[in-house]
Amino acid sequence: MDNCLFCKIIRGEIPSYKIYEDEYTYAFLDISNDSNGHMLVVPKKHCENLLDCDSQTLANLTATIQKLGKHLTENCGFEGMNVITNCGKASGQEVFHLHFHILPRRKDDGISVFAPLNKNDESLEEICACLKVQQKESNKADEASNDRNIVLYTDGACSGNPGMGGWGAILMYKGVEKVLSGGEKETTNNRMELTAVIKGLEKIKGSQHVDVYSDSAYVVNAFLQDWISSWRSRGWKTTKGEVQNLDLWQQLIALTEKHDVVWHKVKGHADNEYNNRCDALAVGEIEKMRKTL
Ligand code: AMP
Fold this sequence. Notes:
The chain has helices at about 5-10, 55-75, 125-150, 190-200, 215-225, 225-235, 245-260, 275-290, and strands at about 20, 25-30, 40-45, 80-85, 100-105, 150-160, 165-175, 175-185, 210-215, 235-240, 240, 260-265. With about 290 residues, it is of the alpha+beta class. It has two domains: about 5-105, 2-Layer Sandwich (HIT family, subunit A), CATH 3.30.428.10; about 150-290, Ribonuclease H-like superfamily/Ribonuclease H (Nucleotidyltransferase, domain 5), CATH 3.30.420.10. Adenosine monophosphate binds next to loops.
């Protein structure tokens, strides 16, 4: 977003006192300097507020908030914190790029976060009853969504790049695994990474919530950092020419429009059992092809 204040801060076009940064989030001191350590945590991907934000972005933000909270309480002498987000003009939101205020707290620091509310016509009982019902309903929704949860691990490999390639995918649903793999004689590593996710998602019937785990920054960041929107707005072109592997990107984008996909980047060749198994499947496909030559 060209004119968004916080996007400009993230890009370094407006100075900020940076507290923390990772691939997906950025934290900096609030300019108001109204309480000791008041900071803001924002996603690098622009969204207006909590209501306009996808679940993956929110998960990245809460992970950062937790990391900062642990740091403040374990290393900086604070004893707690308030985490607040204003959502919409009516709530007092002034900057329309999602942000969480963190107010580090000490016992008896005299900060009053919640000003007294105006008198409400509803009785306390009525309000509590209403909250309880909502809680029950949201628990039910959570249980139903847990039931539906599908996990997909994927990996691709290539011997030479381009060269002979393989892909592996493991789908898990309610403890049952489906193992998939395949290979191509002349391909690239990125194509195999993309193919692994496509093949896995293609096997899923209906429209489902799927957690996808891949070690490919190329695949995962295209969604988490929303490269896709800028490719699309520029007619599938980058400064270096046409977006590579467009055929596969278009298949994958169609599948992500069908399913509710949450992306997870895992470290490759590390200690993730399923990522390692997918890698072994991909390499196994290359070996199989080699023997038939
Ligand atoms: P909100 O009312 O929740 O939208 O909060 C916006 C916050 O952004 C306020 O607390 C401001 O003090 C803070 N803010 C505005 N401009 C800057 C800036 N350039 N650097 C740091 N914080 C800012």
